[in-house]
Amino acid sequence: MEDRGGELLATAILFACLSWIAIGLRVYVRAKMIKSLGIDDWIMLFTQIVFSIYLGCQMATVYYGTGRHMWDVPKDDVEEALMYWWICEILYVLTTVLVKVSLGFFLLRVAVRPAHIWIIRGVITIECLFGISYFLVMTFQCKPISTFWTQYRPNPPPGNCLPGASIGALTYAASAINSAADWVCGILPIFIVRSIQISRRQKVLVAVILAIGAVGSTATIIRMPYISTFNNQADFLYATVDVAIWSTVELGIGIVAGCVATLRPLLQLILHKAGMRSTAGANNATSSLQLSTHISRKNGTTTSMDSDTDNFLPIQANTTVTTVTGNAPKSPLWNGKFGPGRESEEATNKGIEKKVMVSYSQGSQ
């Protein structure tokens, strides 16, 4: 008896482990190391929960027969497998949209130019609108919904479903939009870092770190040739194994890559501990001071900035670095001292909008 269920099961287990490790490290870096847990982190955490439910349902489909030929699976198990398959389709759509939205909010934290910000907002909006439409179609592709898994009974109850070709066409469109969104989010960081006044080498590094969250497009493109298997209704559980595998790879890579893009502070700490990176003036590797300066001028002129998101610039312990360009006022940007923890002030003067954020954690000396 031919059975490819083991391939799908192994893929699900692999990305369950990788994604939870990645999300755990992301939360540690954002919440513990730089104390800057943002909306993109919360969205990604929720995405991971949805993805975990998706993986659980996928494992259930394997248990009930996905990967085997329909004629080798007991009729009752066919219904169970298809029911979980239907749930996986819905959760796939939801997870895909959430990954893109999280990546978009991540880039919004470091974008400066209005054009970049509006492009990112546009990507998020398009993903959400199409995602909602796709979600509704996949949810109600059969009337009643249960027809999706009862249609293979010897005497199925009344009901009908959209043709496999229609579902395939919609899935092609979704894949194209997802891939385009990934490419936009992958290329845009190159233009974002052009506004940062750092060395060319650092610009390349920052662009790569920001763009790494978009590598899920690779799996999306690989998955596309297998979408046609939705048309094979006679042997659905066996024919759709490849599209199920690559759907899991696509989602898993998107989550893992999106989390890896936030781990630079942890990597710096590891390199320091390993003796491959020195920190002048620091007696404790966990001591760090981060400054985020987000300045944009209304006429489009931008400045350099150091995002609290990933500690992009090398900032030594117990030092403060501020870079301002444009016609800054002579009056101080802020008064008083920043106490421990997190403070922020905003000032608007002479057409220049300034936002300064100081965030630090001081380890024991």
Number of strands: 5
State the CATH topology of the largest domain. Answer: Rhopdopsin 7-helix transmembrane proteins
Strand order of the largest sheet: 3-5-4
Helix-strand topology string: HHHHEHEHHHHHHEEE
Report how far the terminal alpha carbons are from each other.
Answer: 66 Å
Tell me the number of structural domains.
2
Major sheet attributes:
3 strands, antiparallel
Number of helical segments with 4 or more residues: 11
CATH class group of the largest domain: Mainly Alpha
Explain what this protein looks like in three dimensions.
It is elongated, with a radius of gyration of 24 Å. Helices cover 55% and strands 9% of the residues. Mean pLDDT is 76; it is low at 278-365. The protein has 365 residues and is mainly alpha-helical. The chain contains eleven helices and five strands; from the N terminus they run H-H-H-H-E-H-E-H-H-H-H-H-H-E-E-E. The protein has a three-stranded antiparallel β-sheet, with no helix packed on it. It has a two-stranded antiparallel sheet with strand order 1-2. Strand 4 (342-349) and strand 5 (352-361) form a beta hairpin. Helix 2 (39-64) packs antiparallel against helix 3 (75-108), helix 2 packs antiparallel against helix 10 (241-260) and helix 6 (164-192) packs antiparallel against helix 8 (216-223). It has two domains: 5-262, Rhopdopsin 7-helix transmembrane proteins, CATH 1.20.1070; 279-361, no CATH class. It has helices spanning 5-33, 39-64, 75-108, 114-139, 147-150, 164-192, 200-211, 216-223, 236-239, 241-260, 264-273, and strands spanning 142-143, 160-161, 288-297, 342-349, 352-361.
